[in-house]
Design goal:
alpha+beta; Pseudouridine synthase; Archaeosine Trna-guanine Transglycosylase, Chain: A, domain 4; 3 domains; ten-stranded mixed beta sheet; 9 helices; 21% helix
Length: 321
């Protein structure tokens, strides 16, 4: 016999404001425990030093985590000039020190301009990327450094919010970027560009896809709410299962057509045929408003199921007739 699954079958998205000092997985496990959820997954790791928006998907919402992993992000960060570290943030050991006393705000602004748009970025050794199945950070902890290929990322905007001069000058920045962008690498590269080195001293993710700080709740707030209630009493905090794909076109199917879509068969939908292009991903609803999943538009205009929400299976329309 298989091991009985612990927890209850709850589905939805919880937007947590991750605290500093915790890993993303520790944050996930804590939220899963508080909701007594059977299944959960997060949508993109934050460094332990970092705080901010960490969407956690429960149950059926885990089927759509890739859309949040692929989504654009926004970060607020403080870069400290004058020192480079092993991890490119304040948690690493200092590698080199150089005075940043001569650094000016104008120099920082000018250097930042070179990192806006489509750029190539080399991932840091202290990252979760894997080489031959081994995370880079594990190799780094063993003192092993391997060659990493530069990867394309897009920096949509990179703004200097404040500059504080000194031996260890600091810059507060706001960065809007594509998935896979390492803010620590941006700090290192900016430090190299101005000639005195730099690392991240603070990092906060303010947006992840359609979610922002305003949507989030802290673990401390969750624990307080949970003190005198059950996990299900917190369900009102969850976003709908389809919240992570709310930017996609919505298509309604009549019940008779939805029955076939639920069973993995491509179906015809006039709206998708008229308004969508081949390869587009769209949200699918039954006429009553029930979310069925997402589908891909085929060459002939039909919709093929791509990710389906599991619901109780009823009799076919023919059998019901």
């Amino acid at each position: 016999m298989g091991r009985k699954q612990r927890g209850r079958p709850v589905s939805g998205i919880l937007v947590v404001n991750k605290p500093a000092g915790m890993t993303s997985n520790d944050t996930l496990q804590k939220a899963k425990y508080l909701f007594y959820a059977a299944k959960a997954g997060h949508t993109g790791s934050l460094d332990p030093l970092a705080t901010g928006v960490l969407p956690i998907c429960f149950g059926e919402a885990t089927k759509f985590t890739q859309f949040l992993l692929d989504a654009d992000k926004c970060y607020l960060s403080t870069f400290r000039f004058g020192a480079t570290t092993t991890t490119a943030d304040a948690e690493g050991e200092v590698l080199e020190r150089h005075s940043a006393a001569a650094l000016t705000e104008q120099q920082v602004v000018g250097a930042i301009e070179g990192f806006v748009g489509d750029i190539m970025q080399v991932p840091p050794m202290y990252s979760a990327l894997k080489v031959d199945g081994v995370p880079l950070y594990k190799l780094a902890r063993q003192g092993v450094e391997v060659e990493r290929n530069a990867r394309p990322v897009t920096i949509y905007s990179y703004r200097l919010l404040a500059f504080r001069p000194g031996e260890e000058a600091e810059a507060d920045v706001e960065i809007r970027c594509s998935k896979g962008t390492y803010i620590r690498t941006l700090a290192e590269d900016l430090g190299a560009a101005v000639g005195c080195g730099a690392h991240v001293s603070k990092l906060h993710r303010s947006e992840a896809g359609c979610f922002s700080d305003q949507d989030s709740i802290t673990l401390a707030e969750l624990e307080t709410l949970r003190e005198n209630c059950l996990g299900e009493d917190l369900d009102y905090l969850l976003k709908p299962v389809d919240a992570s794909v709310a930017h996609l076109m919505a298509v309604d199917l009549p019940e008779s057509v939805a029955w076939y879509f639920r069973r993995g068969q491509p179906v015809t939908a006039p709206k998708a045929y008229r308004e969508a292009q081949e390869g587009d991903i769209v949200r699918i609803f039954e006429s009553g408003g029930q979310f069925l999943g997402v589908g891909e538009v085929l060459e002939d205009g039909r919709l093929a199921p791509k990710r389906l929400v599991v619901e109780p299976q009823g009799a076919s329309p023919a059998a019901q007739a």
